[in-house]
Structure formats: structure tokens, C-alpha cells
Amino acid sequence: xxxxxxxxxxxxxxxxxxxxxxxxxxxxxxxxxxxxxxxxxxxxxxxxxxxxxxxxxxxxxxxxxxxxxxxxxxxxxxxxxxxxxxxxxxxxxxxxxxxxxxxxxxxxxxxxxxxxxxxxxxxxxxxxxxxxxxxxxxxxxxxxxxxxxxxxxxxxxxxxxxxxxxxxxxx
Length: 171
Ligand SMILES: Cc1cc2nc3c(=O)[nH]c(=O)nc-3n(C[C@H](O)[C@H](O)[C@H](O)COP(=O)(O)O)c2cc1C
Fold this sequence. Notes:
Elements: H1 3-9, H2 23-34, E1 45-50, H3 53-62, E2 74-80, H4 89-106, E3 110-115, H5 122-129, E4 136-144, H6 157-160
Antiparallel strand pairs: 1-2, 2-4, 3-4
The structure holds flavin mononucleotide.
């Protein structure tokens, strides 16, 4: 699958087959994440892989919009270190997450990004996983073999694209 195809066919998956994900595939996705660009190559990310069913159940209990973490065989927690990139850590780690989503999709795996940073879920998740105070949790991402094929639309390209000056729609 080439990159453009992966970008266009990836969808958020919230239903998973009850089968485990091979360790080498998890590592491959994490490796893709770490090759993301970051401001000054600061790489302000760390990844925490959760497979334990009880921990996933607790994550699902905490995150109101991520109940399906109880059923996805893997959850990856994307951690940001603001001390490595004070102004850009949020964007830097988000780019790594997108790499992870696309790599997973190209390997036949499904994912869903659940926002955590600046939500009431962040502190309880940090506490549960013993994540140090100085770090932030950008998001959790569920990972597993998809058991649904959702389709979603996008705003038309013409609506969101301007040429040369804002508001100019002719190329
Ligand atoms: C920053 C961010 C936060 C998100 N948080 C959640 C979430 O808490 N729960 C969830 O089910 N999906 C979440 N999503 C997934 C979006 O709902 C999804 O990407 C969007 O509806 C587009 O659908 P698609 O990914 O299938 O193309 C989040 C996505 C992003 C980028």
C-alpha cells in the first residue's frame, strides 16, 4: 500500500476482533512513529504499550469516549515531554501518532486516536500508569484487527483551499 492510499483509506476503528496483535507489528508501528519530523528534531515523545486486559478496562472506564479500549487488544499511550520542545511538543507528538496510525493501517491493523491532553482524563490516566508529573499524555490509541469498515467523509478540497491570497478560489 502506498502512502497516498494509506492516508485515504485509513479510518478510525472502534470494533476489534478478539485476536492478539503480533509483537513485531506493534514494534513496526512504534518504529514508524519515531521517524516523524519534530521541531529541531527534539523528538519529545515516548510510547507506553498496554496489553494487560485489566489496565485496558481501567483506561476504558476513565475515558468516556474510549470505552472500546477494553476490547482492543492493545492500547498505546503517546506521551509528550514538554521540556524537550516547550512550544511544539503537542504538534510533534501528533505527527508521530499519525505515522503510527498509517503504519498500522498498512499492516492491516485498525486504530483509533483518543484525545487525552487537556481533558479530565489526563490526570487519572497518568496516575494509573505511573507516568511522571512533568510529562503529558497527548492521547491513547487503540490497536487491533478491525471488525468494522466505517466510511467517513471530508470537507470538499475546494472549500478549504485558497490560491495565492485568502479567498481566491481560482488557480
Ligand atoms: C485529536 C483527536 C482526538 C480524538 N478523540 C477521539 C475520542 O476521544 N474518541 C473517539 O472515538 N475518537 C476520537 N478521535 C477520532 C475522530 O473522531 C476521527 O478521526 C474522525 O471522526 C474522523 O474519522 P476517521 O478517523 O475515521 O477518518 C479523535 C481524533 C483526533 C485527531
